[in-house]
Design brief:
- The protein has 237 residues and is mainly alpha-helical.
- It has a domain at 13-57 and 72-169.
- It contains seven helices and no strands.
- The radius of gyration is 47 Å and the shape is flat.
- The chain starts with a helix and ends with a helix.
């Protein structure tokens, strides 16, 4: 029994030391995470929506004619701002999903540090909270709108991607056309050279016909025909 207080004091010192170490380590991790550079740039669409949402008409200044310069923001404008906010969230979600497998592979190989992975996890957590906030705001405007707002934002994102791709193709149209014209001219030039070479070869292989023509058209003593007198015509006469 005399050693029991010493044992309790020893356990208390150990537990207190571990608790102090864990608290200090957790505080350092929180401070380090707060100093990490954010994964995405500032969310301007969210800032615009919150600014429009918290715009107070009572704070509007009076004009010279007694009319207010500011009025209440219409719900249509707020809905459009919220939809733009959801569109930006969709873009960030797509970027996170496409970057996660490659980042995990690089982290396993040791090509990137743990700091980059902490930034990525922080971005995922922030986007989850952002999605929940957008859903709640959408349901506040209209019932069950929060279930389809991200679907509409995804369709808008797909349309934007199609327009960007179409614009890129249109920008490359003149360059592709010039390249094709140059290639077609080269093909025609090579084809004409091949035809000229074939005609030259045919001309060399053909035997000369001029001596034969002269021999056939000219006269020869061997080709002369002698007609004797007293032929059948004279006998008959």
């Amino acid at each position: 029994w005399t050693n029991l207080p010493l044992l309790l004091v020893y356990l208390a010192v150990i537990v207190g030391s571990l608790w102090a170490f864990l608290s200090l380590y957790k505080q350092r991790q929180i401070t380090k995470a707060a100093k990490l550079e954010p994964w995405f740039p500032p969310h301007r669409q969210r800032d615009v929506y919150l600014s429009l949402l918290h715009l107070d008409p009572s704070e509007a200044s009076e004009g010279g004619d007694g009319e207010k310069k500011l009025s209440k923001v219409p719900d249509s404008v707020l809905k459009a701002a919220l939809l733009q906010r959801a569109l930006e969230d969709i873009k960030r979600i797509v970027q996170l999903r496409s970057s996660k497998p490659a980042l995990q592979t690089l982290l396993q190989r040791g090509s990137v540090g743990d700091e980059l992975w902490q930034r990525f996890l922080r971005a995922e957590k922030e986007i989850e909270e952002e999605v929940k906030d957008v859903v709640n705001e959408a349901n506040a405007f209209a019932p069950n709108w929060g279930q389809v707002i991200f679907q509409s934002a995804n369709e808008m994102n797909q349309n934007l991607l199609i327009k960007q791709r179409t614009a890129e193709i249109q920008a490359q149209l003149e360059q592709e056309k010039a390249w094709w014209e140059k290639k077609r001219a080269g093909i025609q030039s090579d084809f004409m050279k091949e035809i000229g070479a074939e005609e030259a070869e045919d001309g060399k292989a053909q035997p000369p016909e001029a001596p034969l023509q002269q021999k056939k058209n000219g006269s020869s003593d061997e080709d002369a025909v002698l007609v004797e007198a007293g032929g059948p015509a004279q006998a008959q006469g």
